[in-house]
Amino acid sequence: MAQRGQGIVIRDAHFPGRAPVDAYGNGGFRFAKMSHRGSILSVPSGIYGWLPATVEELTIEAFERVFEEAGEIEVLLIGTGPDIRRVPPALREEFRARGIRADSMATGAAVRTYNVLLSEDRAVAAALLAVD
């Protein structure tokens, strides 16, 4: 809530929990009876709005929250948009060094796989680029 004189305060989008992704497309995602426009990052601490919109924007810095929670993540699914794209080699090496198995796939496949692994109570995280 904004205090008098500050105007509107925008906070980072964050859902504090794990939830399956109910739908994707039209530039966003639906989960936990909410919708989010843009990419999302789902880690053990919750689901966050995520800035990258293209594979080219997938940098080590973009995955900082994943690395902070690496001890609780076995598998990271990376949804690379409408098509399967490889993540940069330096990023793959960083995941490996932190003990995270990272798999890149089209966003639709990543959503489906994430939901299955989540239902099995696996230590899964997902970095999902929005698709139209």
From TrEMBL:
Superkingdom as given in the UniProt entry: Bacteria
Membrane spanning stretches: none
Xref: Pfam families: DUF498
PANTHER family per the UniProt record, alphabetical: NADH DEHYDROGENASE [UBIQUINONE] 1 ALPHA SUBCOMPLEX ASSEMBLY FACTOR 3 (PTHR21192:SF2), NUCLEAR PROTEIN E3-3 (PTHR21192)
Protein name: NADH dehydrogenase [ubiquinone] 1 alpha subcomplex assembly factor 3
